[in-house]
Amino acid sequence: MNEPSAPPGQPSQGETAPGRRRGLLRLRFPFLCLLAFWLASFALQALDKSYFVGFLCGLLSTTLITLLFLGWWGFNRGLRVWEKLLGFAFVVGEAWLVGKYSDRSINFFTLWMTGFPLVATVIVGWLFLAKKLQIGPARLGFVLVVGVTWSCFLFIREEGADSRLKIRRHWRWTPTSEEQFLAKSRAASISGAIAEQTDRSFIVTVSPGDWTCFRGTNRDGVIGGTAIATNWNVNRPVLIWKHAVGPAWSSLLLLGNRIFTQEQRAEKEAVVCYDANTGSELWVHADTARFEESVSGPGPRATPTFAEGRLFTLGGTGFLNCLEAATGKCLWKRDIKEASGARVPMWAFSSSPLVTDGLVVVYAGGDSGKGLLAYRIDSGDVAWSAAAGGSSYSSPQLTMLGGVPQCLVLHDGGLTAVDLKTGAKLWETGLPMKGPPRYGQPRLIEENQLMVGALDGAGCSLIEVSKRAPNWIVSNKWKSRDLKPEFPDFVVHRGYAYGFDVGIFCCINLADGKRSWKDGRYGRGQVMLLPDQELLLVTAEAGELILLAVNPKERQEIGRFQALEGKTWNHPVVRGDRIYLRNAEEMACYTIPEMASKMASAPGPTTRRSE
C-alpha cells in the first residue's frame, strides 16, 4: 500500500523540515563550546597546578565561554533582533537582581564565574528541547529556565575554596561555623575588655621550648629540643581538648600555659589568649574590622609575635597592635595604611611582625615606596620605611650575611635586603613577578647561601651573597622547578629540602636542586621539622596530622590520624608531649603517649608572679 503523499510545501514523512534542521545545526556551536568548557573545568580540577594558575585558567575559560556564547547569541539568524536584545537584558537583569539580594558571599564576580556558564548551558539545553520536541511557548520557557537557574543562587552561600579552588557551598539559612562558634562562645560579646579571670599579677616570659613567633624562633619551621613517641599506629595521640574558634589563618604562639592567636568574630578582629592546659579563654582584645574574600574566607592571616612581655599583631585590614601579653591591654595601635599609603590587598595584610633591636617590622606594600615599615616597640613611632615592591604574602626575615644583620623581604619585585637600623637597601635580586603574590621565607643554608622560593618565577633558587666593599655581590647557584612552594613553606635538613611541590610532598637535593622523590598528596598543608629525631610533622589540608621520617631516598610515613575537621592551612606547634594545632574552625591539643626521651619533658610554666 502506498504511503500518503504530503501536502504541497510540507516535508514528507521521514524528512526533516529545513528550518528545523538548520535550527538544530545552529545549536551545535554553543553545545560544543559548552561541552569543551565543562570537560576542561573537570580536567583542571583534577590536575595539580599552582593556585594562581588555577584561578587564571578559570578566569580565562569563563571569559572565553562568555564571549563565544554572546557572539553566537548576537549572530544567531534564528532569533529576531528584539528577541536577542530582550533575552540578553533578561539574563543580565536577573543576575543583577539575584546579586543584590543573595548572601554576601555571592557577589557579581562569583555569579559571573559560577553562574553564567551554568545559565548558558541551561539556555542551550532548553532551545534544543524546545526545537526537538516542539515545546511551546518557547519564549515563556526561556524566561522560566533562566529565572529558576539564577534564583538558585538566592538559596546558597559560599564558604571559600580549597587549594584546588573547589568551592564549599551550603544552604543560605544554615549557620556558618563562625556563627555557630559565636553562639556558643562566652566571648560572643567581644567587647574588647580584659576578661575577669585574667590574673594581672602574672608576667609572661620565655622558657625553652616556647613558640614565640611565626614558624619558630628563626622562622624556619624547626621544632628543636623535642622528642616524641612515633608508634602512632599503636598508640595514637590522645585528645586533651578541642573547641571551636573564630576563622583565621593565623598560627599559634605557645608560652608556658598560654596560647595566643588571632580570630575573626563577626565585625571584630580579635587577638585571643587561651589556657594551654584546658583551652579556656583568658582574655580578648578586639578591633572593629573585618576582612573577607571569596576564596580563602574571613579572618586575619598573620601570626602574632611575642617579645619583652608584649604581643605584636597585624590584622587583615592593617591594624598593628602592641598588647600586654599577660592581660591583653593595648599599649599602642597603628594603621599601617597611614604610613605606607597602601590599600588592603586582595588577600589581606599577611605579614607576621618581626621584632628585633627595639623595632617591629611589617610589610605593607603599596606604590609609595614605603612597602617595608619599622615601628619603635616602645612608642609605636615610625623609625624608618623602605621600598620593597608593591605586594607580598611573605613576612620579614632576620638574617646574618657577611657579618651584617639584615632584614629580607620577598615581594613582587624580587628579594630585597635592608639595613635593620636605617632601612637603607643593601642589595636586591630576582625577577619581577606581577600577579600572584610571592610567599615563603628565605632560608639561610650556609654562611652566605639562601634558598628562596619563587625568586625567578615558579620553583626555587639557591643564591650566594657576599660583600666586596662597598658592594654586595649576589650570584645564582642553581634554579629548580622540582620544588615549587606556594603558601606552604619548606624545611631544610642535612643537605635536603622537604616541602610541597604545588600539592604533592617532595624532597630535593640542595647540592643541585634536583628532585630526590615526589610522593604524598596532602594538599596545601604545612610541614615542620623535628631535627632531634629526624622527623617531619605534616598537617594535611584536610586536617590530618602525619609523621614522616626524614629520608632523602623515599617518602617514609610513620603514622597519621585525623586531628581536625575542615580546611587546615595553619602551622602546628609541638612542645614536650603536647601538639597544638588549629584551622579556621577549631583548635585542639593532643598528648603523645610514651615520650621517647627525657629531653621532651614539658617545661614549667613560663609565667611568674610579679614581686
Which helices and strands appear, and what pairs or packs with what?
Layout: H1 18-26, H2 28-46, H3 51-75, H4 81-101, H5 108-132, H6 138-151, E1 156-161, E2 167-171, H7 177-184, E3 202-204, E4 238-244, E5 253-255, E6 258-265, E7 268-275, E8 281-288, E9 292-293, E10 297-298, E11 305-307, E12 310-314, E13 319-324, E14 330-335, H8 336-340, E15 354-356, E16 359-363, E17 372-376, E18 382-386, E19 397-401, E20 404-411, E21 414-419, E22 425-429, E23 443-444, E24 449-453, E25 460-468, E26 471-480, E27 491-493, E28 496-501, E29 504-509, E30 515-521, E31 526-530, E32 535-539, E33 544-549, E34 557-562, E35 573-575, E36 578-582, E37 586-591, E38 607-609
Antiparallel strand pairs: 1-2, 3-38, 4-37, 5-6, 6-7, 7-8, 9-10, 11-12, 12-13, 13-14, 15-16, 16-17, 17-18, 19-20, 20-21, 21-22, 23-24, 24-25, 25-26, 27-28, 28-29, 29-30, 31-32, 32-33, 33-34, 35-36, 36-37
Tally of DSSP β-strands: 38
Our count of helices gives 8
Kindly identify the CATH topology of the largest domain: Methanol Dehydrogenase, Chain A
Question: Sheet bearing the most strands, described?
Answer: 4 strands, antiparallel
Just name the CATH architecture of the largest domain: 8 Propeller
Mean pLDDT score:
88
Full CATH superfamily name of the largest domain: Quinoprotein alcohol dehydrogenase-like superfamily
Radius of gyration: 28 Å
Low-pLDDT parts are 1-22, 187-196, 596-611
